[in-house]
Amino acid sequence: MDDEWICGRLGEDEPWLLGAVNPPVFENSIFAFETAEELGAALKDEDERYVYWRGTNPTVDLAQRKLAALERAERAKCFASGMGAIAATISSLVSAGDHVLVLGAVYGPTTQFLRYLEKFGVTHTHVGDLAGADSAINETTRLLYFESPSYMRYELFDIPAVTAWARSRGLVTVMDNTWATPLFQKPVTMGVDLVLHSLSKYIGGHSDLVGGVVCGPAALVRPIARTEYMLYGAAMSPHDAAKVVKGLRTLPVRMAAHQERALAVAAFLAGHPGVRGVNHPGLPSHPGHELARRQLRGFSGLFSFELDTDDRGAVAEFLDRLRHFRVAVSWGGFESLVNAPALTTEESVRATMGIPVGLIRLSVGLEPAEALIEDLALALKGLRRLA
Predict the structure, then answer these.
(1) Catalytically active residues, by annotation
(2) HSE on the CB side for 201, CA within 13 Å?
(3) Largest CA distance in the chain
(4) Each residue of 222-245: pLDDT tens digit?
(5) Residue 340 belongs to what domain range?
(6) Tens of pLDDT along 164-181?
(7) CA–CA separation, 262 and 366 (whole Å)
């Protein structure tokens, strides 16, 4: 099925829509039944039947159907935040005494959550490649977690090779696919068991939504829906689900524009003497560029580069000089954003990920590339003396 059709029309011709061009938002917290027997039967299958908003909701279901179809997954479950999806997914796969392998750099709060699980007897090890994974795996390892491209550094992993390695050792693979979106990368088709997204980013697309989703086979997603989803209380609201549906409608057009503008900005930075390097898989100079051409159908607007300085003061000054790039966390909306891990990320987490002081993350929005390049050029000009 065509991705643009899935984003725009899948599930939107159902009888309950009554011909509405915008799917209705089901605000009710409960659903009534004719008899107590019917309610009892529904409660036994609450992840499939409409009983209570915390479990299921028609508006949320529509978003889930679209997301599952885009990822080529059997099922999807939406959460109130990306961390809600991450925490529920990892929790569903491990027990006290288990061990988790983390491949490459991952989202900082994911590492923090894994550290939190240590008090319940769940341990983890960060490794940089499969050779490191071979050394770190043990008889209690149950899960391999990774992102591709990786967090902040945007290194790529050979996904089929990673999943084959994990499957041969009996491990479940979980991958965060937020950077690429389901339009540009489909990890399920490359063997990944469970795929995660922060819906707050490109899928929402307008910086007005916080949400997350896990996609995969029913055998793995349904236990999450029936247990962690229900007990953690991180249920997506129908209003947020409606924003997901609306965001998906324009996702193909927006991602094409993000890609075009970000590549122009990245190419400018790659040629600037005040920049040590640019981490964008779409550039031929990126060490994973050929792998990216095989695994990715396109490139998003998020990448990083390293200033030619190791001074935190210079990093802060650079951010303060920018006018079009707004200093903020998150990414994926219309507006272009800038962030510096040296100023915002816990030092121990940054050290684990190998993130240098001068690393700058850019989220290139939908403003004209020329204006963004001019903004960066002026800010870099002021910092040349610190290079």
Answers:
(1) 54, 107, 176, 201
(2) 25
(3) 77
(4) 999 999 998 998 999 999 999 999
(5) 250-386
(6) 999 999 999 999 999 999
(7) 9
